[in-house]
Structure formats: C-alpha cells, structure tokens
Amino acid sequence: MSAFATASSPASSRSASPREVGERGRLAPTLAAGVALRCVVALGPHSGQGTPPMYGDYEAQRHWMELTTALPVRSWYEPGPDNDLQYWGLDYPPLTAFHSWLLGIVGHGVDPPCFALHSSRGHESLRCKAFLRASVLVSDLLIYLPGALWSSNFFGGRRTAQQLWMLLPLVIIDHGHFQYNGVCLGFCLAASGCVARSWHVLGSVFFTSALLYKQIALYYAPVFFFAILGQCLRGRNLSAVAWGVARAGAAVLGTVLLLLGPWLLGERPAAEVGQVLHRMFPFARGLYEDKVANVWCSISVVLKVQRLVSPERLPLLCGSTTLLALLPSAFCLFRRTAGPGTFAAALFTSSMSFFLFAFQVHEKGVLFPCLAFCLLAGAAPSGVTRKMAPALALQFQLVSLFSMYPLMVKDDLCLAYLFSVSALLVALVLQLGHHSKVFWVGSLLFPGLVAHALHALVPPPARYPDLWTLLITSASCGYFLLSLLGVTYLQLLGAFDEKPKDL
C-alpha cells in the first residue's frame, strides 16, 4: 500500500465487484464518443495548410518522418546537405525522433511520395493526410488512453477517465492543429499512476520517457522528483531510504542511456549529445513565441523584459521566478498526509508556474495544467473543494481554449473551437447547481463574447495591430495567475491532503 493508493487499488488480486464492472461498461460510450470526436476534428484543416514556404506543425511532423527514415540515426540532429535545420530541423528529444522513424517506416508503405527526401516538402495529398491523422488517433489509443485509464484509478475513477479522454483542448491541438502531445501526456499519466502506487522504478521510467519524448514534460519534473523523494524518505530506516532513491535514480539513468545510446556510442559522444541538447533547448529563439497567455508576454504591453535584462540572464530570471512559484506547493509532497489530491495540486501549480514564468513558452503548454486540473478535480477531498473542483476543471478548459483562440483563427479551426466551447458551456451548466449557473456562465460568456467580437469585427489600431490578441491572452493570463494562487493557497492549508471517500 502506498502513500497515495487505497485499498480499492486495481493492482489487488481481488475480483472486480459488480459496481466496478458496471462503471467500466459505462466508459464505453465515452470512449466511442472520444474516438468519433477526434475523427470529426481531423476532417478540418491543419496548421500551415497550403501556406508555403514553411507551412506549419503538420509539415514539421511529416518532415521528421522523412528525415529519420532517410538519414542515419546520428545525423538526425546534425546540419548537412540533406538536413537543413532552418527548415523544421528536429528539435524534440530522441523518443520523438524514434516515434517519427517508426511512423515514417509505415508511411513509406502507405504513400511513398509523402516521405521522399527533399521532394516531399509541403506534400499534402489526401492519402498522406489520412495516414498522419490516423497515426495521431492510434497513438492516443495505444498510449494516452491506457495512461488515462490507469491513473484514473487513483484520481477519481470513471469520471476522471472520462474527462481525460474528452479533454477538448488536447483534442483540438493534436487532431486539429496537428501534434502528438497525447503521447507525452499518456506517459505522464502512466507515471502518475505508478507514483500513486509507490512503483518508483516504473514511474521513473515512464516519466523519463515523457521527458525524452517532449522536453515540455519538464513542467511536471519537480513534482515527480519531490513525490518520489518524499515517498522514499518515509522508509523504515536509512538503508531503505537510500535503496529507494538509488532504484529510482538508476531507472532514470538507464532510460536516458538507452534512448541516447546511438549518440553516446558515436565517435564524438560529448559533441553529439551536446548537439541533441542544443536542438532541444534553443535559447536563442527568445523569451516566447507568438502571443502566449503568460506573464512575460502580457506585461510586454507596458514593460518589455527583453530590453531590461540581457539575453544571457533572461533564462536565469525565468527559471528563478518559476521555481519560486512552484516550490511552496511542491514541498507539501513531503507531508505524511500527502495524498492523490496533494500530488495533483502540485502537478497543476508546477505546470502553471512553468507556463506563466518559464523561458520559451508556447501556447500549447497550457495542456499540462489542463490535464493536472482534471486529476485534481477527481482527487479533491470531500467538502467544498470536492463540490467545486469539477466545475472549476471545466472552467479552466474553457479559459485555456479561449487563450488559444488566436491560434485557432490562424489555423482556420474556428468551427472546432466553437463546438468545443459550446460543449464545455453545456457541461458547465449541467455541473453547476441552480443558483450558481447565472453567475458562473455569465461571468465567462459576456467577457468572452466581447473579446471575440472585437477580435473578429473591429480592426485594431494601426499602431497596435496585436491589441485584440493581447487582450485575449492577457485576460487569460490573469485567470491563470488567480488559479495558481488559489490552488497554492489551498495546498498550503492542507486542503488536498485528505483522501477522497470514493477512491
């Protein structure tokens, strides 16, 4: 029995009760609806569709499949005549590269011209699109869905599994815009379930895999570190503590060595691994990309941090601010009363702190606090927080989608966006009590309608062409800041330490 798991853990040897069998059966319609939703969203446009010369993230993913199947492994991150790093050079960790290679191998059998070296740039045939769209769905079914089902056993059960599978911001980004965030998040969910069960070795392997699939998994890294360390420190004696820490550390190191093996075994291992890391962390790109709902972008209207702080010190400023914001909540994992809610709250505050204060933030990074809030809603203890958490999780998804509205316009995904917002509003109305509906829905709907109307109908002043976009992202940033402060405050009070009665 772990610090987080309860006697109803699925890992126990007892047979499933009739109630549990019924709950699993009620998941089937949600799973089918999630697959159907993904297929419908995939029928729409993708990022950069028909917009040369760089196109968009769809082209980046396709191009990586082209490169990894045409070049030797150790050339994937190196500049060369067949690898122009200025044209969507591979800048994700090795597990993404191996995933691209595997998909590219299959893709060559489906539509060879789509993955032909050089000549396939901008290739957007119907067969190629169908294959790439299907690859995201299959990745969700093989990695994200099992992670969601496993972790939900410790963070609220069936309802949490349903919310994770129907996480609309993730569906739009992965199946509309086009990315494979579900793979990284699936590994994170699997790791969360393992940590809840005190399976430190397997949890370390899963989370390190997430980190070596997408470096943005760093958003959760402090929480997994403190959670595993905190559980190890509860050992019976010093040798048990040392053994637990050593096993977790060995699992991390072994996973890193395995996935970086081709570069570590090269003729110049230090230089080759250094090039991989350089591509993963491109500090030269600047503080943020596009208009993102974080603090640095929001205050740029009145205070441009880039002009006050040297480029060399900007990452240090961002890192220090991020750590100061997340550490109070993360330290709560050392408490002996820490439970699933404590862990989920720490995941939220850590990822929210990274999104708001870190260096080189993308608008899609909000998916990580979105996922954490779903876990928190399921694992929140009984009382006021338990009653409010599901509605707050829906509200957070709404604001997250709202913060990405400029990206939706850019990718021509407004129809999918409108459907998702409407669905979340309906779910929020059904979730709330009678007296709360007018306040909650009105507080979201009226400001949202005004902001959308301004963005769509009123031309911004010539001197401030991004005014309406900044209005949307700055308002979202304010909400995210309040969410971070609120969850941190409740975490410090121990509001999430009590285990839910229905876990």
Automatic annotation (TrEMBL):
* Keywords, sorted A to Z: Endoplasmic reticulum, Glycosyltransferase, Membrane, Transferase, Transmembrane, Transmembrane helix
Q: Which InterPro entries match?
A: Glyco_trans_ALG6/ALG8
Pathway involvement of the protein, from the record: Protein modification; protein glycosylation
Q: Where in the cell is it found?
A: Endoplasmic reticulum membrane
Transmembrane regions: 216-233, 245-265, 341-360, 366-384, 415-432, 439-458, 470-493
Compositional bias, Low complexity, is annotated for 1-16
Membrane topology per record:
Multi-pass membrane protein
Q: What is its main location?
A: endoplasmic reticulum
- The EC number on file is 2.4.1.-
Pfam families cross-referenced by the UniProt entry: Alg6_Alg8
As for family, the record states: Belongs to the ALG6/ALG8 glucosyltransferase family.
Name of the protein in question:
Alpha-1,3-glucosyltransferase
Which species is listed as the source?
Durusdinium trenchii
